[in-house]
Design a protein that fits this description.
- The chain is of the alpha/beta class.
- It has one domain: Vaccinia Virus protein VP39 (Rossmann fold).
- Helices cover 40% and strands 22% of the residues.
- It is built from eight helices and seven strands.
- It has a seven-stranded mixed beta sheet, with helices on both faces.
- The longest helix is centred in the last third of the chain and has 14 residues.
- The mean pLDDT is 95.
- The structure holds S-adenosylmethionine (SAM).
């Protein structure tokens, strides 16, 4: 499923395989879900992070998924029929949350392939996600090691540092390819 979608939409998928369970656990641990009331996952793909989020979030916390690829969305709605799944770009996060009755969110957990995005798209997407986060909210996203040294990877890191009050990188964990997490606090 993942390989097929990557061949069909290389610029959107930006990966050769779904993330590992080790990376999913790290993402969710760093997102500190214990006190989160509204959580948004963007770019869930086949739902590796979604399963880990469901294991750790408070039962009453809302979880919204935003996935641009209709085939992934269809698969997600079979796996997680009880979750709101929005088949659109993560750029629409603000209006989607408003429609759902939320004034923003406490956590954004991102599977988006930032280094595959050109500068304008990086800026628009990150701007929309940042605006949707409550002050003190946490944004987590991963990057493949060592692709963070490519120009798009560097541009993305600078964007994070310009916007967020705190930006931290974790150690690299086993994944295909190996990956680490940016933990950003608004
Ligand atoms: C690298 S894959 C990660 C999938 C999954 N989170 C994982 O780690 O296995 C990137 C995902 O982001 C989705 N995506 C790409 N651009 C998007 C956008 N603008 N809005 C929402 N989802 C997007 C892709 O369709 C794909 O599911």
């Amino acid at each position: 499923m993942f390989l097929k979608q990557t061949l069909l939409h290389p610029k959107e998928s930006g990966a050769i395989a779904a993330s590992s369970r080790r990376l999913a656990d790290l993402m969710v641990r760093e997102a500190q879900l214990a006190d989160a009331r509204v959580i948004v996952e963007v770019g869930p793909g086949t739902g590796v992070f979604t399963s880990a989020i469901l294991e750790k979030k408070r039962p009453e916390a809302a979880l919204h998924l935003i996935e641009i690829n209709a085939d992934f969305s269809k698969e997600l709605s079979v796996r997680f029929p009880f979750l709101p799944i929005h088949t659109t770009s993560a750029e629409d996060i603000g209006p989607l949350l408003t429609q759902a009755g939320h004034d923003g969110c406490d956590r954004v957990i991102s599977g988006l392939p930032w280094t595959a995005f050109e500068n304008g798209l990086q800026e628009r997407l990150l701007g929309a996600l940042y605006e949707a986060l409550h002050p003190g909210g946490v944004f987590v996203t991963f990057a493949y090691f060592p692709l963070q040294y490519l120009p798009n990877g560097q541009a993305f890191r600078h964007r994070l540092e310009r916007r967020f009050a705190g930006v931290r990188m974790t150690d690299v964990v086993p994944n295909i390819p190996p990956a680490f997490v940016y933990v950003c606090t608004k």
